[in-house]
Every structure is written in structure tokens, then in C-alpha cells.
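Please go through the protein record below and see whether the fold suits the sequence. Record follows.
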Amino acid sequence: MKRHLLAPACLLGALALSAGTASAAGDPRWVETGTAYTDTLGGGQGLASRADGGLLYRGLASIPLDLRIKGWNHIGDPDIARGYVVDAYQGPDTATSKMFAVTTPAGKRHEYVHRLNPGEKLNNSFATLSPDTQWLVSGEWGEMRRLQVFPAPLLDPSTPQAGGDLKEAWQITLDKPVRDIQGCDFVTDARLVCASNDATGTLFPEIRPLLQVDLDRKLDGGPVTGRVKSLFALPQRSVCTGTFETEGVDYDVTDGTLRVEMIPPGVCAVSTAVYSYRQATG
């Protein structure tokens, strides 16, 4: 997950919605329903839906000063469950650990530090909680064939209840490689959608695809395999030209809305597009 240098001004044009998005045969068809915008500095790294229908955004400006002082200089795509907010933090390129912060409904924050395993990348691109709130899924950067699984800090009673060390429990082994995953979220107990920033077209035909990961069963504390397929290319629409960047993804279980963030290029990067989708009923 790369860091952004933002230009001081932006001009976004009114751009038409795309037609429906096609998915693989037998899978839900996601149809684009709208576009919103959020300030990139305050919300361009990720988003999560609250139980009341509101949205929580995260960006580089969301990092509290005390965490910056500790060296946590990047925040990823968050998640919310039962009113608890889980944030994914990473440090500098020399870091030997990553951190998940859990904020309770009462506003108390607890920090859980995971020391990197041999061969594990320092990136902490996202945090997503299983529907039963007992497992935390996260991901690294570059080309990977796994997603990492941890006991959900604070929510799983086996974890320290006031912050502390967090060890990886096991992994989701993917049947094919993925690249530059910026965020994932659960749609069902055994299905995730993941936003990829892969623009090479070498792993999947689509550029910056939305991926679907079907698990062989719901998370239960043991190794799980996941079947990966690309659903469609995420929109890259802007009056500015250059390189886009996919960011966070969220599935709102209360109304079935899927949202994905895309940072446009150039001076337009100060404003992040948030594309909304619903599953087609017909």
C-alpha cells in the first residue's frame, strides 16, 4: 500500500454512471448505483459502515498523534463489528511488527501488536472481521497466495482484553495469486470481496479488479482454502489523467450496499471517489 503525496487543488467533472457490471456465471451481478466523494487526506485509505447506516472513513489524517509518535505512520482499510472499530496500522520500511487498534463503543482504544513472522511483509493493508466477530482477516502487499487470520483482538475472549501481543492463528490459502489487495470485506460467512490495485493485467484480465474469494467453509479456527475470481474492473473515471489507485472496500449488511474507493490521478487526488453497488435481483 503506497503512501500519497497530495496536490493542493482538484477539479472533478460530472461523469456518467457506468452500465451494470458483469460477473461470472452463477455469481451475484453487482450493479453500480451511485458515486460519492470524500476528502482523500481524511478518508482515502478505507471505509466501514456503522450499524446506524453511517460511514466511518480513514485516511492519513486519521492517525492519532500518539500513534504517529510511536512510528505507526500508515492506516489501512478499517472494519466495524458490534460497535467496535478495528484499524490496521503499519510503520516504516524497517518495521518488524504491525499493529491493530481496537476502539470500543465507549471510545477506549486498545493496541494489539503483531511481530512479523519469517517471510511476512510489513504491510498492513486492511482489517476485516468475520461475521461472527471471532476472527480478524488481514493482508500484505505485492503478489500473495494467502490472507492472514488472527483471533479478533478484544472481541475474541482468548486475546488480551486491554491490548498486547497478537499472534497469527492460521491462514486462508488462495488457489491463485492476487496482487496489491487494498481491502477485503465479508459478504457472507464464507465469501469475501477484495479490492485490488493490480494494474498489470497478468493475474486477471481486468485492471484494478474487484475480486471474489469463496472459502471452502466459514472460518472456524483451522486452515481454510479460498477460490479467487475477478468480478469486474473497478471504475477509473476522472477529468485528470494518470495513475489511479484502488483503496478500501465495504459491504453494508444492513442494506446490501457494496462500496469501493478509487483515488484519481494528478491534482484530482485530493478527492476520493466512492462507488456504490447493489446485487441485481433479476
About this structure: The radius of gyration is 18 Å. The first helix runs from residue 40 to 43. Confidence is low (pLDDT under 50) at residues 2-20.
